[in-house]
Amino acid sequence: MKERIVILGGGESGTGAALLAQQQGYDVFLSDFGKLKESHAEVLKLNGIDFETGSHTADKILNADWIIKSPGIPKKAAIINQIKEAGIPIISEIEFASKFTDKKIIAITGSNGKTTTTSLIAFMLERADLKVGLGGNIGHSFAKMVMNDQDYDLYVLELSSFQLDDIDTFKPYVSILLNITPDHLDEYDYDIKKYGQAKLRIAKNQTEEDYFIFNADDEITSELLKETNIKAQKLGFSLIDEKQAAFADDINFNINHPDKFNMTVEELALNGKHNVSNSLAAAMNGNILKLRKSIIKDSLMEFDAVEHRLESVISVHGIEFINDSKATNVNSVFYALQSMKTPTIWIVGGKDKGNNYEELIPMVKKKVKAIVCLGLDNSKIVETFSPFVDQIIETNNMKDAVNTAYLLGKNGETVLLSPACASFDLFESYEHRGKLFKEEVHKL
């Protein structure tokens, strides 16, 4: 009798997991509490995979041998509690797919910079003529790629803490932890340590033959590493300590181990201190994989920033518009404001995830001329920054936000969309929010 796998969630990862499970001979059922995208539903129908939408039917789920949980489903959801009470193992799509490939995996996690670093690493490897499977929290479903495993030389995966919560044997060759700052704490009992421990699971199964790259400047990471047994070779990168395996200051960009490599910070395509750190991590990975130094350097010099992350849109009458819609937490916004070089009109707001905006006050006092709130509830933002910023205007749609920011700006100034919040009060996703921002800017 076939083993039965039930997939919860029919997004990119869930649909991919269903297809791989079917390919591997399992009895497959997919359940989505919401509404499936038409494209996903069509794929399931074409492949004869049984599914339901709009509810989770316990009788069809609790007879599973395995549950594959999509990362967007809260750990405290009622169906998850029922599954745990029934003693059915829960794994992630990442864990499941990794069982069916022996290709090297490069895995990247962190509160900020994951997408940029993952994309930069994939860009670098493709420049080296390697066939890269780019997926996880970005791009394609890992499971769907593994269905055609022969098409790839290796995989580069961006991983969230939610995806790492449900791994058991997943083992990357190189794991990268960029930083740990408060984010999604509502899913971790508002405990930064529990959230950080979820991130560190990326190195849980690595051996002495593998590599763990980490941010030696990150205080929470450093504290957690003292109490975590990681067998992989640990390589730190730093903007402070030149004795680490990789180090950069305001001028020099140096990889010290396993091979030496150097260039200048000025040559990097990505601006801002946070992106120097991201570039160090990517260069270290290239070094470990023994890419030619010329390929590493050229990639770092030519890579374009990812969409919705400090993305320059256009200048209108000398006012530069920057789309940083992907900045969904306070720490991301800190880095964005830090990189601003002219007086800034800051568009901020959305669905708050327990943000402590006070951390941004010093940077706001230094960089921000005016604030345009974009959200259904802006009270926390107004309360925090009104003592320090004279002009704070509330809006609840993108058109008004962009037009207001434009009227507040002058030649030589910058309008920055960097929300510090999730997008779900007014938009479908941060991509949707960024797309509408760019559309409204181009109408000016």
TrEMBL record:
<dbReference type="GO" id="GO:0005524">
    <property type="term" value="F:ATP binding"/>
</dbReference>
<feature type="binding site">
    <location>
        <begin position="110"/>
        <end position="116"/>
    </location>
    <ligand>
        <name>ATP</name>
    </ligand>
</feature>
<dbReference type="InterPro" id="IPR036565">
    <property type="entry name" value="Mur-like_cat_sf"/>
</dbReference>
<comment type="function">
    <text>Cell wall formation. Catalyzes the addition of glutamate to the nucleotide precursor UDP-N-acetylmuramoyl-L-alanine (UMA).</text>
</comment>
<dbReference type="Pfam" id="PF21377">
    <property type="entry name" value="MurD_N"/>
</dbReference>
<keyword id="KW-0132">Cell division</keyword>
<keyword id="KW-0547">Nucleotide-binding</keyword>
<dbReference type="InterPro" id="IPR005762">
    <property type="entry name" value="MurD"/>
</dbReference>
<protein>
    <recommendedName>
        <fullName>UDP-N-acetylmuramoylalanine--D-glutamate ligase</fullName>
        <ecNumber>6.3.2.9</ecNumber>
    </recommendedName>
</protein>
<feature type="domain" description="Mur ligase C-terminal">
    <location>
        <begin position="308"/>
        <end position="421"/>
    </location>
</feature>
<dbReference type="InterPro" id="IPR004101">
    <property type="entry name" value="Mur_ligase_C"/>
</dbReference>
<dbReference type="GO" id="GO:0008764">
    <property type="term" value="F:UDP-N-acetylmuramoylalanine-D-glutamate ligase activity"/>
</dbReference>
<dbReference type="InterPro" id="IPR036615">
    <property type="entry name" value="Mur_ligase_C_dom_sf"/>
</dbReference>
<keyword id="KW-0963">Cytoplasm</keyword>
<dbReference type="GO" id="GO:0071555">
    <property type="term" value="P:cell wall organization"/>
</dbReference>
<dbReference type="Pfam" id="PF08245">
    <property type="entry name" value="Mur_ligase_M"/>
</dbReference>
<comment type="similarity">
    <text>Belongs to the MurCDEF family.</text>
</comment>
<keyword id="KW-0961">Cell wall biogenesis/degradation</keyword>
<dbReference type="GO" id="GO:0008360">
    <property type="term" value="P:regulation of cell shape"/>
</dbReference>
<keyword id="KW-0436">Ligase</keyword>
<dbReference type="GO" id="GO:0051301">
    <property type="term" value="P:cell division"/>
</dbReference>
<comment type="pathway">
    <text>Cell wall biogenesis; peptidoglycan biosynthesis.</text>
</comment>
<dbReference type="GO" id="GO:0009252">
    <property type="term" value="P:peptidoglycan biosynthetic process"/>
</dbReference>
<dbReference type="GO" id="GO:0005737">
    <property type="term" value="C:cytoplasm"/>
</dbReference>
<feature type="domain" description="Mur ligase central">
    <location>
        <begin position="108"/>
        <end position="284"/>
    </location>
</feature>
<keyword id="KW-0133">Cell shape</keyword>
<keyword id="KW-0067">ATP-binding</keyword>
<keyword id="KW-0131">Cell cycle</keyword>
<dbReference type="Pfam" id="PF02875">
    <property type="entry name" value="Mur_ligase_C"/>
</dbReference>
<keyword id="KW-0573">Peptidoglycan synthesis</keyword>
<dbReference type="InterPro" id="IPR013221">
    <property type="entry name" value="Mur_ligase_cen"/>
</dbReference>
